[in-house]
Amino acid sequence: MRILVINCGSSSIKYKLFRFPQRQCLAKGLIEHIGEKGSSVKDHYSGLKLILNQHSEVSAVGHRVVHGAETFTKPVIITAKVINQIKRCSSIAPLHNPANLAGILACAKLLAGVTQVAVFDTAFHQTIPPKAYIYGLPYRYYEKFGIRKYGFHGTSHNYVAQLAAQKMKKPLSRLKVITCHLGNGCSITAVRHGRSVDTSMGFTPLEGLVMGTRCGDIDAALVTYIMQKEKIDISQVERILNKESGLLGLSGVSNDMRIIESRARAGDRRCQLALEVFVYR
Fold first, then answer.
1. Strand partners, 180
2. 2-120 and 123-209 share one CATH topology?
3. Per-residue pLDDT of the chain (281 residues; tens, 9 = 90+)
4. Is the domain 2-120 a CATH 3.40.50.300 member?
5. How many CA atoms lie within 13 A of 155 on its CB side?
6. What's the pTM?
7. Catalytic sites, residue numbers
8. What's the CATH superfamily of 123-209?
């Protein structure tokens, strides 16, 4: 059996093709800067088409899906019902669920009839206690809209915690570990005895650390303040917070850490500041 594992990020696609049960990696690759200025890959569908044109003999596909809310606590076979739930969660994961869904729909077209499985980032964090995931808002918003901290990068944090335990030659069930996921999206998680007990991301992947294009934690009042000063609407301010902030907004150059570090070494003060803020936060 050949299983294709796909991770459609906000601006990238990572993939590996495995042969099972041998667990042998047959191929792997990365497409970056999707949809960015100057990129030859305009969207995730185009990127996945390139990948699937090279690796057509696939028995099953596994997808990383960012947001499953409280609905999904473990991997599931993708059905029309699952697709609809992923769509519903897109409003609270606008940079990711649409990209994840694009991968699922592309595979459905290019690999018709092949079983697809969704693995949710939020699932690992379902062990976070209420005192950590409930916000200081009227409780009715949790009851009506499910507003709470969900956390993301769960598959990554789970894997890193297990690998750390292996490296230390200690059982994860006895360890307290802080795991870090640092990429275009960034988060940290407290893992106690193998279970997530708190994490930096929240209701959406916008909360927490300063990221590639996301602002991370800010004073909530700044949202309406910026809207009033700039005379912009909700969709515009959402775009600023999700796609024009973070390292990109601070440096004024790029969301790519490699470019920012290079410019910082050359004396670019804004890039130096972006690095300092990223490390401090």
1. 188
2. yes
3. 999 999 987 788 999 999 999 999 999 999 988 888 888 898 888 888 888 888 878 999 999 998 898 989 899 999 999 999 999 988 887 778 988 998 899 889 888 899 999 999 999 999 999 999 999 999 999 999 999 999 999 999 999 999 999 999 999 999 999 999 999 999 999 999 999 999 999 998 899 999 999 999 999 999 999 999 999 999 999 999 999 999 999 999 999 999 999 999 999 999 999 999 999 99
4. no
5. 16
6. 0.81
7. 121
8. ATPase, nucleotide binding domain (3.30.420.40)
